[in-house]
Amino acid sequence: MKIQGKMFIWLALFILAMAIIYGMWSKEPVGTTALFMAFGLTIMVGYYLAFTARRVDTGAGDREDADVADDAGELGFFSPHSWQPLALGVGSAFAFLSLVFGWWLMWISAPVILVGLFGWVFEYYHGENQNQ
Asked: Distance (Å, rounded) from C-alpha 97 to C-alpha 49?
């Protein structure tokens, strides 16, 4: 994580330098603001990675003598058979289509989105997967 933090901090410094140069050269406020906001987002990620790297064990990416297999292992638990993302996708598609066809379509998409959201959050509180 140390190398990722350093990379983001260096990228943030580069974006800051480009924002200053772009702002002075172009005198265009929208692009300059976007570059300063990109600097802010990049420095937040870099600071978080550098701050977290001090509190966790050294990973395989931080060691020069590490092999690819050293980073192998369990990545986490992923739901193998969830239908809830499909419901959220369909509800979101109808919600965006309501901008084209009319706001009345939002009355149809909101319950679909809520069913998908609540189903996804409480997926492992009921049914056959209750104790996972």
From this structure: 38
pLDDT tens for residues 74-86? 767 777 788 899 9
Residue 68 pLDDT > 80: no
Contact 9, 43 (CB under 8 A): yes
Can you tell me the distance from the alpha carbon of 73 to that of 62, in angstroms, rounded to the nearest whole number? 17
Those residues with Cβ within 8 angstroms of residue 70's Cβ, 6 or more apart along the chain or in another chain:
60, 63
Report H helices in 27-105.
Answer: 29-53, 84-101
Task: Retrieve residue 62's tokens.
Answer: 């931080």
Which residues neighbour 66 within 8 Å (Cβ) at sequence distance 6 or greater?
A: 60
pTM of the model: 0.55
